[in-house]
């Protein structure tokens, strides 16, 4: 994401979150503080609303889609699709 001339990267990031209907996230927390560990069948980072391509909006560092933490929140679009579901 690029900031417009005269605007900071943080301002551009804040605007993006507001456009998505969210709020500006707080500073990221460490993996240890949220019990980052191997996930479960229907409770893992790859299904979380905060996860996107190896990153998390709330947790610092690279995020494995098969792991889990206490901040897990199921994405609404995946809430009823089992992990082994095929289309």
- What is the 3D shape? globular
Architecture, CATH level 2? Irregular
Instruction: Please report the total strand number as a whole number.
Output: 4
Number of helices: 1
User: In the CATH scheme, what's the topology name?
Assistant: High-Potential Iron-Sulfur Protein, Chain A
Which regions are unreliable across 5 or more consecutive residues at pLDDT < 50?
none
Structure description:
By secondary structure, the chain is largely without helices or strands. It has a single domain, classed as High-Potential Iron-Sulfur Protein, Chain A (Irregular), CATH 4.10.490. The chain has 1 helix and 4 strands. The chain has one helix at 9-19; strands at residues 37-38, 51-52, 55-56, 67-68. The chain is globular and about 25 Å long.
Key terms:
87 residues; little secondary structure; 1 helix; 4 strands; globular
Write a short abstract of this structure:
The chain is mostly loops and 87 residues long. It is built from 1 helix and 4 strands; from the N terminus they run αββββ. The mean pLDDT is 76.
What layout of secondary structure does this protein have?
Blueprint: H1 9-19, E1 37-38, E2 51-52, E3 55-56, E4 67-68
Antiparallel strand pairs: 1-4, 2-3
């Amino acid at each position: 994401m690029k900031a417009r001339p005269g605007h900071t990267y943080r301002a551009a990031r804040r605007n993006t979150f507001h456009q998505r209907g969210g709020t500006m996230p707080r500073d990221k927390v460490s993996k240890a503080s949220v019990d980052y560990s191997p996930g479960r069948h229907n409770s893992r980072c790859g299904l979380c609303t905060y996860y996107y391509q190896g990153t998390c909006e709330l947790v610092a560092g690279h995020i494995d889609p098969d792991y889990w933490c206490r901040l897990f929140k199921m994405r609404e679009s995946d809430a009823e699709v089992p992990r082994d579901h095929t289309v």
